[in-house]
Amino acid sequence: MTMSAGARFAALGRKREMDGDLGKPETAHAILAETLVETSMGWRPVEELRAGDMVHTFDGGLRCLASVARAPVTSERPLGLIHVPGGTLNTCLGLALLPGTRLLLDLPELTLPDQAAGGPVLVPAGALVGWRGVTMRRARAGALAVALRFEEEEVVFANTGALIHCPAAGQCRDGGDMAPLSGFFAELAMDEARRRLGLPEELPGRPAGLSGQSAYA
After folding, report:
1. Does the model's pTM come out above 0.85?
2. How many Cβ atoms are within 10 Å of 106's Cβ, its own excluded?
3. Which of 22, 48, 115, 183 is deepest in the core (most CB within 10 A)?
4. In this protein, which residues make up the domain named Hedgehog/Intein (Hint) (predicted)?
């Protein structure tokens, strides 16, 4: 009997589910536990997903998860998380994000010169601090991050309205969280995104102990 594509991925995925730390490529640019992700079985907490599950993507329809990595949110340095209020990104609930996680945003002020017809761009979540109620808070002890990986880079739906970029394996190996990730979407760096949104370079509401770029490295 021939295995379906989903069954093949599930079998392979059992070998690819892993623990890690957020300094390693397989768990960089992850989604925090309790975030709801749209799947073929409806909206599910990201921590419940497994390799082989089918997930709705922004421009590719349903795609099969190739691997899932999990890691606690820990750091040798204090780590801030980005908190987006419910409704700000058309979400049903508030959303917590790692600062380097890319959001796909379609805002006129972020349109790049070579996007004559406009279109969405990837922006680090940390660039939104101070915009429409977005704040930075210290990560709570025991918070879990889950990295979803597909055969190719994809953008998934989170908490109904947010669009979160999931780089393909190998796209985040070098250069840290702020290195370009996408081979398909236009992308803005932290400082440029903040400038275009009319935000000051200095981040407001940074938790004590967080300074400079330490929250994003």
Report:
1. no
2. 11
3. 22
4. 32-159
- Distance, CA of 173 to chain centre: 16
Q: Please give the backbone phi and psi of residue 203, each rounded to the nearest 5 degrees, phi first.
A: -80, 125
SS3 percent helix, strand, coil of the chain, rounded to 5, is: 15, 30, 55
Euclidean distance between the first and the last CA atom of the chain, given in angstroms as a whole number: 48
Rounded mean pLDDT of the chain?
79
Phi and psi of 96, rounded to 5°? -105, 135
Which residue intervals of the chain are DSSP H helices?
5-16, 190-196
Q: What is the CA radius of gyration of the chain?
A: 17
Letter for the amino acid at 40?
Answer: S
Q: Which amino acid is at 120?
A: P
The helix (H) or strand (E) run that includes residue 146 is strand 144-149
Are 160 and 36 within 8 A, CB to CB?
yes
